[in-house]
């Protein structure tokens, strides 16, 4: 590449009211195109090289982690337990099994902590993939679906669990609803 091609690329254009400025920074010659605005403002096509430290009010410092519960979190399972505790998970398993027995009778296969965790994780994954509005059958489809979802559980089991998932005791709900409108999930 010759210097003539560089000169052509950075030549001044009187129609656009431009000129070429050369600056020496740390022994290097920097050529920039300077555009002149109608009001006399100069615009350059290269960023201004800062020659001073940033003022302290303009410095952004991120706070340290001040939430004690998250100080010792080292795995995704521990992060999951920050949102859904073991006690909450036990209640979900208990009330889901009660509803399963109530609706399905002897054909209900009881769920456990692992299966409910898998269901919640799978639903979070589906949401993260922005497929929350997609038909469940499509998500399990061999060609269009997600392999992760198919290997987690079958479509029928997932559909059963979603329909029977309960967070509270259904028998005491009417009494609690008198004082709490969010009784089913409180």
TrEMBL record:
Which InterPro entries does this chain map to? PGBD
Pfam families according to UniProt: DDE_Tnp_1_7 (PF13843)
Q: Where is the PiggyBac transposable element-derived protein domain?
A: 75-185
Q: What is the protein name for this chain? A: PiggyBac transposable element-derived protein 4
Q: Organism, per UniProt?
A: Elysia marginata
């Amino acid at each position: 590449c010759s210097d003539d091609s560089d000169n052509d690329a950075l030549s001044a254009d009187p129609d656009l009211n431009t000129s070429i400025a050369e600056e020496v920074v740390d022994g290097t010659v920097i050529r920039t195109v300077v555009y002149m605005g109608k009001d006399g403002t100069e615009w350059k096509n290269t960023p201004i090289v800062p020659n001073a430290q940033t003022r302290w009010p303009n410095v952004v410092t991120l706070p340290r982690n001040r939430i004690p519960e998250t100080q010792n979190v080292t795995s995704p399972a521990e992060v999951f337990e920050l949102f859904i505790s073991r006690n909450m998970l036990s209640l979900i398993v208990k009330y889901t099994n009660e509803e399963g027995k109530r609706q399905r009778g002897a054909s209900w296969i009881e769920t456990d902590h692992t299966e409910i965790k898998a269901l919640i994780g799978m639903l979070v994954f589906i949401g993260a993939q922005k497929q929350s509005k997609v038909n469940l059958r499509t998500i399990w489809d061999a060609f269009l679906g997600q392999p992760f979802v198919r290997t987690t559980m079958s479509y029928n089991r997932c559909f059963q669990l979603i329909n029977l998932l309960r967070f509270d005791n259904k028998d005491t709900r009417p009494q609690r609803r008198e004082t709490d409108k969010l009784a089913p999930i409180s």
